[in-house]
Amino acid sequence: MNGLLQLLSDFMTDHRWLAGPAFGLIAFGESLAVIGVFIPATPILFMVGVLMGSGRVDAAPVVLFGIAGASAGYFLSWRAGERLGHHAWRLSAMTRHRRSIARARLFFRRWGGVSLVAGRYVLGPFQSMLPLVAGVARMDAPRFYCWNIMSAVVWVGLVLTPGFALGRGIEAAIFEKAWQDQIVAGLMAISVCMIFVGLVAAGTRWSH
Q1: I need a labelling partner for 4 at 20 to 30 A (CA). Which of 30, 40, 90, 170 fits?
Q2: Residue 114 sits in which domain range?
Q3: Cα gap 168→177, rounded to integer Å
């Protein structure tokens, strides 16, 4: 994971004009049903926040592309659920994750549209199933659009903010560039560990 984060960090730093579109694609993939389970977007969000705070990438395009990608991924998942209906749960890709899908369905049934916002944090990598569940449940379009956009804005903003704050602190400190690189890499590693522990803890709570 650290190697992947470092690779992305170097790419976004060396190609600043592509940082926004690249991040948008990551957010898009992470928000797609099934595919999103395999994309660790949360540590990437934190890493990009650090890069933004330290001035290595421009904040505006990253945030805008991130919100656009996240909302587009949820939209396509919702449309897929709307078209497939309950047949979606019979697909081979779904039968492999029956327990996690059942949790997502129960979570949506209990919280409705709010689940599209809160689920990004509570369900971990399986949050990408929520818009699919919403589509199968025939959640009406205006209501979905509202919660979808809110979900993308809150998700990108909240997860970028801690990294951005740390990046600003690093940039303000009096260090040589070589030391700054080492500190950023260390923060990335720490953030990955913290996020992993949080996901394990969330999974433990849901298993009881």
Answers
A1: 170
A2: 2-207
A3: 14
